[in-house]
Amino acid sequence: MSIASSFGTSEQLATATTLEVTGSPESLPNEPLPDHACTQRLQRVLETPLEFVFSTSFDTAAIEEEVRQTLSHLATRDTLDEDLPQNLPSHLARLCECSRLAPEEEQQLFRSMNFLKFGANQKRLRLQEEERPTSEQLASIEEDLENAERVRNHIIQANTRLVFSVIRKFVNPQHSFDDLLSDGIFTLIRAVDKFDTDRGFRFSTYAYRAITSNTCRKIANRQKELARQATAANQLIDESLESPTPPGMNEQTWTQLNGVLTQLIQRLDRREQLILRSRHALGSHRTTHTFQDLANRLGISKERVRQLEHRAVQKLRNWAAEQSVQELVEPVLT
């Protein structure tokens, strides 16, 4: 399983990075496969994304021996590093257990990974000219892809601590560590796929710039989203709860309810206030807005609006219970 297959919380990322493709397909007789088996394996091989950086070293005879040495080294290498980052939970510290790469080792790993992908791509191109590919041809491509993934995973694990060193500088109440970590890991993976060793600088330099740039871009986009939400909120949030007494409710009860709701709603954040007032017709115009209308105003999904409304209602119910006014507030929230 590749690290690239999971972008969730830091707990999920910690689990993902411990998984690694091991082994290789067994050699099969070099004979045409039955149609049904051939179709499935051939389709899987042809649809596998292949992205590599070509190097002039691929034309040398030494590259194949270097790849064999790299794979052998990965199979026997002790990857644990005792010098782990401080002040990290254990599930995050596990992401940094892989030892840092020496410059020469880094170059060798990248050359091996890209050569394996390059070889798989060359074999795949030849495969497309075959009327009926053999099991040996498919197994050779699958082995190259699995070995390339092993090398790729190792490079990612060895550089994960770089993501921590970048994103921890940007953590704030609006941008959680888990959100930034997920994006940072994704950026690291993309950097591994695009890094060109022939340019002569370390991967950490390239990855640091990529992660920093992407994190700044994410924060800037988030700020724009918050500004858009604030603009939409300002159109509705300032509506007063001082509307005419609803039919069937005496003025004294409405005045009391009005005061309680005003006090409780002001404890919500601005977006929650907007959604709650709009959904429950608590503004001066007493108009109920749909989830889709609010989603369009706030620039978020309809399901996200539903989740925020549920959270806001639960908060009001809890606060109302603390003040023993739940019976007064509950009719408005249902």
Descriptive report:
The structure is a single chain. The chain is mainly α. The chain has two domains: 3-223, Four Helix Bundle (Hemerythrin (Met), subunit A) (Up-down Bundle), CATH 1.20.120; 240-333, Orthogonal Bundle (Arc Repressor Mutant, subunit A), CATH 1.10.10. 63% of the residues lie in helices and 0% in strands. It has 14 helices and no strands. It has helices at 10-16, 35-47, 62-76, 90-93, 103-127, 135-158, 160-167, 177-194, 203-236, 251-265, 270-279, 291-298, 302-322, 326-333. The longest helix has 34 residues, at 203-236. The protein is elongated and about 90 Å long.
Outline:
With 334 residues, the chain is mostly helical.
Average per-residue pLDDT, rounded, comes to: 78
Overall 3D shape: elongated
CATH architecture of the largest domain: Up-down Bundle
**Proportion of strand residues:** under 5%
How many beta-strand elements? 0
Radius of gyration: 29 Å
Estimate the helix proportion, in percent: 55-70%
Oligomer: single chain
Largest sheet: none
The computed structural class is mainly alpha
Which fold name fills CATH's third level, the topology of the largest domain? Four Helix Bundle (Hemerythrin (Met), subunit A)
- The first-to-last residue Cα distance is 46 Å
Structural domain tally:
2
Number of DSSP helical runs: 14
Q: Return residue spans where pLDDT drops below 50 for at least 5 consecutive residues.
A: 1-8, 10-29
CATH class division of the largest domain: Mainly Alpha
* Secondary-structure element series: HHHHHHHHHHHHHH
